[in-house]
Amino acid sequence: MAGVTVSNLVKTYPSGSRRATDDVSLEVADGEFLVLVGPSGCGKTTLLRMVAGLEVPDSGTVTIGGRDVTRLPARERGLSMVFQSYAIFPHLRVRDNIGFGLRMRKIDKATITERVERAADLLDLTDYLDRYPAQLSGGQRQRVAVARAIAVDADVLLMDEPLSNLDALLRMQFRAELKKIVARLGTTTLYVTHDQAEAMSLGDRVAVLRDGKIIQAGAPMEVYDEPSDRFVGGFLGAPPMNFFDAVVQDGRLVVGDVSLEAPERLASWPDKKVTVGIRAENVAVDRPGLSGEVEVAEPTGAAVLLTVRWAGGELKIQAGAGFRAAAGDRVDFHFPGTGLRFFDPETGLAL
Ligand code: ATP
């Protein structure tokens, strides 16, 4: 096993107008599961491909297990990969697909059989070893691709949207299985997704990218709870964090024609404009104080998601499943101080 370090990686594609990765540095510890997440085009895949050796950086370095691999071809880096287009070979049985990487490495037959069977067992494919891909469901084919990557016993596992071809339910089921499997193997893993829920659920740490830069990296709940800027707060979470503008006056936060108590640390910034953030689940509907009109009430089963219009604009509130409200109703709510986050309106950075 091995940790991965990328230092100051810069990559501009010949036809690209801006840097696909812009001075990215990141350390992934030995055995860690790190998820790269961000909106389309933020540079996740480019970063992963530079670690893989499929793309050459303009500058910067990649080390794996302390060894500088920046100029080494992919096959000499000791890694295995699963990509979105999980090219499994239609003319090979599942067992030969899983063993493909091992045969390429000229490993002896008995070891190949043993490793293929172990990987198949981990991915629940034992009963399908003699089938051809065409005789499998999409989810099973995806498992074959993952089994093939795992069978190699590489130091580092790279995965780029490996679940994207699955429907929502399978995706969620497989996500939990993948987490279990990778934890059991203890392989250092870099995983790319644009799906924030997947990132949060899988990663020991998540690194949120935007415009070729890592904006914040940390444990999922840390990044979710304490976003370093407004972008991260808005990107993670469904619904995204609520934001509204306020001005600090006389120790209170003034929002349109209402005011609420400001935390002590803000009181020393008279007339400061701030962007306030609060997550839907942190808005309390059990205590009055503020009020708004329900525009939409969406039961999700486990909760009711309210869209409320109030002095600060539109607000998403996650109320308990038993909460009854319909469009047009007035609802009283309250922002517990612990749930409030503050950002600079100009820079978006957390205050
Ligand atoms: P997605 O989630 O859509 O796959 P991503 O975050 O993985 O996006 P990249 O594929 O790394 O993003 O792309 C980063 C930037 O580099 C984008 O602006 C993209 O248009 C550009 N880019 C990627 N590959 C190439 C290429 N082969 N040639 C030119 N530009 C490219």
Write the layout of secondary structure elements.
Elements: E1 4-11, E2 21-28, E3 33-37, H1 44-52, E4 59-64, E5 67-68, E6 79-82, H2 94-98, H3 100-104, H4 109-122, H5 138-151, E7 156-160, H6 168-185, E8 188-193, H7 196-202, E9 205-210, E10 213-218, H8 220-225, H9 230-235, E11 242-249, E12 252-255, E13 258-261, H10 264-267, E14 273-278, E15 290-299, E16 303-310, E17 313-320, E18 330-333, E19 341-343
Parallel strand pairs: 3-8, 3-9, 6-7, 7-8
Antiparallel strand pairs: 1-2, 1-4, 4-5, 9-10, 11-12, 11-14, 12-13, 14-19, 15-16, 15-18, 16-17
Helix pairs in contact: 4-5
The chain binds adenosine-5'-triphosphate.
Adenosine-5'-triphosphate binds next to helix 1.
Short account of what is shown:
The chain has 351 residues and is an alpha+beta fold. The protein is 25% helix and 32% strand. It has two domains: 232 residues, Rossmann fold (3-Layer(aba) Sandwich); 102 residues, Nucleic acid-binding proteins (OB fold (Dihydrolipoamide Acetyltransferase, E2P)).
